[in-house]
Structures are given as structure tokens and as C-alpha cells.
Fold this protein.
Amino acid sequence: MHYAPEKNDVYVYFRYNENQKVMVILNKNKEKVLLDMKKYYKMIPETFTAKDIINDREITIQKTLEIAPRSALILDLNK
């Protein structure tokens, strides 16, 4: 499932099957972006915990998520 970038130029997509779901977030901006998670309601609950695969840490996500400049964030939603 792909979500085209809007005004913030952040590209988000999900890879999933019956057993696993991964959310990939790509920020090509020179500044950090506060991503409104409501747009992805079909794929994620309002509040959830996921594993940041790149940094090997668990994060709790609520209504927004701060994405570092020029970075990728890969979240395992089934941690």
C-alpha cells in the first residue's frame, strides 16, 4: 500500500502479508517533519508500538511522528 507525498514530501508505504506488516517512511527534506498519522488509518491503529528496524529500538506512536531530515524509518508493526 503506497501513500504519495503531499505538501511535506514524505513518502510512506507498507509491505504486508497475513503474518507481518512493515511501514517504511522516507523523508527527503532538509528539515525534520512532523508526520500526521491519521492519513494511514487503514493500515495502523491510532496508537501503537513498533520496532524501529534500523536503530533496533521500540517506539510508541500516537497521533504524530517526528521524522529526521533526509532519513528513512522502517517500522516492524508486529514486533
Q: What stands out?
A: The chain has a mean pLDDT of 93.
